[in-house]
Amino acid sequence: MLSPPALAAHLRRLLLSPLTFRAAPASSPTSCLVHRAMASTAAAPSGCVAAEEYEDVLGKLSSLITQKVRAHSGNRGNQWDLMAHYLKILELEEPIARMKVIHVAGTKGKGSTCTFTESILRSCGFHTGLFTSPHLMDVRERFRLDGVDISEEKFLKYFWWCWNKLKEKTDDDIPMPAYFRFLALLAFKIFSAEQVDVAVLEVGLGGKFDATNVVEAPVVCGISSLGYDHMEILGNTLGEIAGEKAGIFKKGVPAYTAPQPEEAMISLKQRASELGISLQVADPLKPHQLKDQELGLHGEHQYINAGLAVALASTWLEKQGHKDMIPLNCTDSLPDQFIRGLSCASLQGRAQIVSDSRVNSEDKNKDSSLLFYLDGAHSPESMEICAKWFSNVTKEDKIPSSAEQSQTSGNSRKILLFNCMSVRDPMRLLPHLLDTSTQNGVHFDLALFVPNQSQYNKLGSNVSAPAEPEQIDLSWQLSLQTVWEKLLHGTNGTNTSKTSQVFESLPHAIEWLRKNAKENRSTSFQVLVTGSLHLVGDVLRLIKK
Description:
Strand content: 5-15%
Structural class: alpha/beta
Helix content: 40-55%
Distance between the termini: 30 Å
Number of helices: 19
Largest sheet: 8 strands, mixed
Shape: globular
């Protein structure tokens, strides 16, 4: 258990690393590239005063993060019935009722589906708002206006508006909302004040009791691929999990789902039937429908998410009286605006390839010797998808253009950099990752297990010295290593540094990788970072400094 000061530092670091952007139109393939770069590039806050104010805001947000699990019945700030009080305090009932919402729940791909949907509608000329979670480097990533993270100026303005009103009206009976609930309320305030044409909302957890589910009349609802995750909250079977996700369905509101396992589909259909609505299955997109363009988010599984996004965007357009913009059928090529939106979509930490500029810029005449393959997979099913993606891209003669490097697959070392939350069972994750990689012809030369940087360090004005090695609890990382070694060598296998290592910190692991890459220029180090979106965010922050 972290001490109170260490916990405060951990919470604040999770929120830090501000960005500042202005939106750029995405009306052409060229502007698409500019827009994607803007949406994922970090910049420091302007001026010391702004930085201090931003730091203050992050501290206040940190104070809302509870140590209890999200479903804990004793956490009053997290109780569902309080949301009505918060909406009344913030005068958001009417603005939300007028909002043209697309609401998406799911286990895997809901963030990608929301990103595709928003990008399509933005390419069709609409003023868009997108609320997703979690963020990787900056809390403002959760709030996008016209495809770009909300500016620091607007974020501060709307934050203080919500914070001050809630502080004035809350008390022991109606406490301040917990962290995610506050962020959802802030999103509603931002989107209503900015008068977006469409608000695309990603459910945070589950569906029925999620903070986003205060929307009583969305335009359309969607369910992305379902699987086993958050079982301690949502249930132990796919049917139970699907039932919680179907809690976003509303009477009279059309609903779509990605293809699902039979048990999940039965539960979704049952809830739809109870409400008297039709539940339609959105078929995965076919590559030919994109007219030789590529999806902006990589991986074969993204065609499933893109298919659901096309159905959601098409229904929204139809409901708003724009039938002329929607596809004629489910098999022909998509309209140009749809293709542009799907190809311009951008979301960090999902099948993302980043070249380490500190190592690779030292000799520009040579191919990249250190590449990070980042994917925030954290469920058994997403582990398999991640492994297939990593296997495919590292076996190709050339890696995707996002890395802007050519790379042969001959002389390479494949390394796993892994951590997962302790609430997850590594025996449900690592075997899927290892088996799928092996089946696809990829073998890891080494596995590195690390704590997330957020467990011992923070960024900002109140930086404390890093913890001494003996102060860092590595018991979880050692248990992950034990699982890995048993998978490789069996129950009697002994761990050696030849196949796995535990590092006391993420920066130490990154420095070790850089040192080895510099000393072995003829070898390509291909590092798969997965198991936790928080880990992916920490790695991105370190290598993009």
